[in-house]
Each structure stands twice: as structure tokens, then as C-alpha cells.
Design goal:
Blueprint: E1 5-8, H1 10-23, E2 28-32, H2 34-38, H3 42-52, E3 55-58, H4 61-69, E4 76-78, H5 86-93, E5 96-100, H6 103-111, E6 118-123, H7 138-145, E7 151-157, H8 169-179, E8 188-189, H9 193-198, E9 206-209, E10 233-237, E11 239-245, E12 250-251, E13 257-258, E14 263-269, E15 285-288, E16 291-296, E17 303-307, E18 320-323, H10 329-336, H11 340-345, E19 352-355
Parallel strand pairs: 1-19, 2-3, 2-9, 3-4, 4-5, 5-6, 6-7, 7-8
Antiparallel strand pairs: 1-10, 10-18, 11-14, 12-13, 14-17, 15-16, 15-18, 16-17
Length: about 350
């Protein structure tokens, strides 16, 4: 078996749930597991989440169907809502909670004939300007929804654009706009990961655990460890080949790295087809055992080359950590000029997953 393995930690998931619940002890908890649990494979999370949260959330109905097939028993919130009128009956039958974010979805809901009424999450666009109704439109829409027999209950929700930024004026305006709707006397869901960790005034009835659930910091200034979180995944490989090259010889496509002296080059089984970013800076490294080994040359589709000069020969057969417990993915993302979400959601299906 190819030695590239993503080790999934249930104990880390249990830890992160405890941390996040401790930050919002009076709320209900929604675990966001869209995009195949941010690349972590939903089947790895479902057994724990079934026991420890109140809701799951995905982007679309097809993702919710997969979760049902794999044992998810909780109500599932469809964050993008539905796209065809016939899907409303499916949602009713499968205990899906439906977000309504525009007038087309509202019209379809009013036309739907359902065996069981739906729980509706009404999206309020308080400043993200992605989905949702303007705050001034909300009271009239709520009044209309309350007349529909196909609606069992209504929750107001919004999404913060800058909760991960310190002293953001936009964040303060978004909070004010939601506070102005308090007179509607409806349950509310505001807080994403950043708000759960830093803004207690946003917690309200339901908090939505996104990237923090996976042990990753929601801001670019920190790592998950700074909040007491633990990464659910540790991506490891092995040195599958090594060779000595002479001073002046180059390594990899484009000959971007030139050996400054005679040196040993290692090859590890991991490349951009596995989800590791190709566009990384010269600061990037992996850990061979406990030793830093710089990545040299461009990562290829299936392999990367590393500088073994700082690694004792006796350690060359040790596991190579690409990111995880000892090498935070936040650091790897910074080297690539991207965010951890991108790397995690691009982990290839050919990467083997094992539970720790």
C-alpha cells in the first residue's frame, strides 16, 4: 500500500466538541460537515456527532442524502436551501431543515405540498451579501411564513463576513442588524467558528461549528492549538527513495532548486494530486521524525523532494508528517498563500484514511 496515510483522530474530535461547547454552553450545536466534512470523510465524524450535537449542516440536499446513507440520524440543515420544488417533499420526509435565502426559494416553498411541515431557517443578509433577505424585508416574510401550513417553525440566521478580524466595523454592523430583529421573538443562529471562539454576544440559540470542529483556527493569526483545539487529521508519508546529487545539480520540474553543495535528496509519496499545494514558498518543510526537512523543487503530481541534510541517516525511515499534530496545517496554508479549507477540501480520494 502506498505509504501516504491520513490518520483521523476521534479523540481530537471529542476534544474539539468539548472546547466549543465550553465556549457556548447555553446554545444548541450544529456541526457543519459539507464538502465531505471539509475533506475529512463524513463517515469518520458521523458516529461521534450523532452522540454530541443537535444538528448537522451541509450545503445541499445531495450531501444530506449521503449522510443519511452513512448513518447520520440528526436533523440536517441545508445551508444553500433547495433548487427544485420536488426537493421540498424529500426534505420533509428525511428530516432536513431548509434554509430560505431568496424569493425564488420562498415561492417554491409556498407551492409545495408536504406530508410533514418543514423547519425553515430564514437567511438574513446583514452584510455578507452572498445569500439572504435584507433585514427590512424580514418581518413581512416572517409574517407570511407563519401563515403557511408547510412551515412548522422558523429560525433566523445570518453569516458573518469578518468575525475572524479584530475590531471589524462590519461585524459590529451585522450584530446590530440582527439585534434589530429581536422583536420577532424567533430562535436565532448567528455564530460561526470565529464568533463561537471570540464573540459570546453572538451565540444565541444555535451555533454552527465549522472549521474549528476540525481543529483549525478560524483566523490567520493563530493555530487551532492556540484555542485548545486539536487537528482531526495528520497526513503522513515515508521517504520512498533517496539519492546523492552534486553541487550545481538541479531538482525537479523547472530546475528551480540548485544544490549548493553535495547533498542527499529524499523523495516522499505525496504530490499535488493528493491535495498538497504546488505553489509553496521556500520556507516549506515536512517533519521526518522530529527533524525539519525543507521541500526542494516544485511538488509534482505524486511526489515531493526534500532536503535530508539535516536529518540523521538513522531517521530516514521514520514517518514523514506533512501536516497535523506537530506541523499545523495553518503553517502549510501560509506557505502556499492559501487557507486551510482549500487544502483540506482538496485531499484526494486516493489518500488512505485510517482511524487512530
Amino acid at each position: 500500500m502506498r505509504p501516504l496515510i491520513a490518520y483521523f483522530s476521534e479523540s481530537a474530535l471529542e476534544n474539539n466538541l468539548a472546547v466549543l461547547k465550553g465556549r457556548a454552553p447555553n446554545s444548541q450545536y450544529c456541526a457543519v460537515i459539507k464538502a465531505n466534512a471539509y475533506g475529512h470523510r463524513v463517515e469518520n465524524l458521523i458516529p461521534v456527532l450523532n452522540r454530541h450535537v443537535d444538528y448537522m449542516a451541509v450545503a445541499m440536499r445531495e450531501e444530506a442524502d449521503v449522510i443519511r446513507e452513512k448513518g447520520g440520524i440528526l436533523p440536517i440543515l441545508l445551508l444553500e436551501g433547495l433548487f427544485a420544488i420536488e426537493e421540498y417533499q424529500l426534505a420533509s420526509a428525511r428530516n432536513y431543515l431548509v434554509a430560505i435565502g431568496d424569493y425564488q426559494q420562498l415561492t417554491m416553498l409556498k407551492m409545495a405540498t408536504l406530508d410533514q411541515p418543514l423547519s425553515i431557517f430564514l437567511k438574513v443578509d446583514t452584510g455578507m451579501h452572498r445569500l439572504g433577505f435584507k433585514p427590512e424585508e424580514v418581518p413581512a416574510i416572517v409574517a407570511e411564513l407563519r401563515t403557511l401550513s408547510c412551515v412548522s417553525d422558523i429560525t433566523l440566521m445570518t453569516h458573518f463576513a469578518t468575525a475572524d478580524e479584530e475590531n471589524s466595523p462590519l461585524f459590529k454592523r451585522q450584530v446590530e442588524r440582527m439585534n434589530a430583529l429581536a422583536s420577532l421573538n424567533l430562535p436565532q443562529s448567528w455564530a460561526n467558528s470565529a464568533a463561537i471562539l471570540t464573540a459570546t454576544e453572538t451565540h444565541h440559540d444555535i451555533v454552527r461549528m465549522g472549521i474549528s470542529l476540525y481543529g483549525v483556527a478560524p483566523d490567520e493569526r493563530s493555530t487551532g492549538q492556540d484555542y485548545g483545539l486539536q487537528p482531526l487529521l495528520t497526513l503522513q508519508s515515508k521517504v520512498i527513495h533517496h539519492s546523492e546529487i552534486e553541487k550545481g545539480e538541479s531538482v525537479g520540474y523547472g530546475a528551480r532548486f540548485v544544490a549548493p553543495e553535495k547533498m542527499t535528496v529524499g523523495v516522499i509519496a505525496c504530490g499535488y494530486a493528493d491535495g498538497y499545494p504546488r505553489e509553496i514558498s521556500a520556507e516549506a518543510y515536512v517533519l521526518v521524525g522530529q527533524y525539519k526537512a525543507p521541500i526542494i523543487g516544485r511538488p509534482a503530481m505524486d511526489m515531493m523532494m526534500i532536503d535530508l541534510r539535516g536529518v540523521p541517516v538513522s531517521e530516514w525511515d521514520q514517518p514523514v508528517e506533512i501536516f497535523g499534530k506537530n506541523l499545523p496545517i495553518e503553517k502549510v496554508a501560509a506557505w502556499a498563500g492559501t487557507i486551510p479549507y482549500t487544502i483540506l477540501t482538496h485531499i484526494s480520494q486516493r489518500v488512505h484514511f485510517l482511524n487512530q
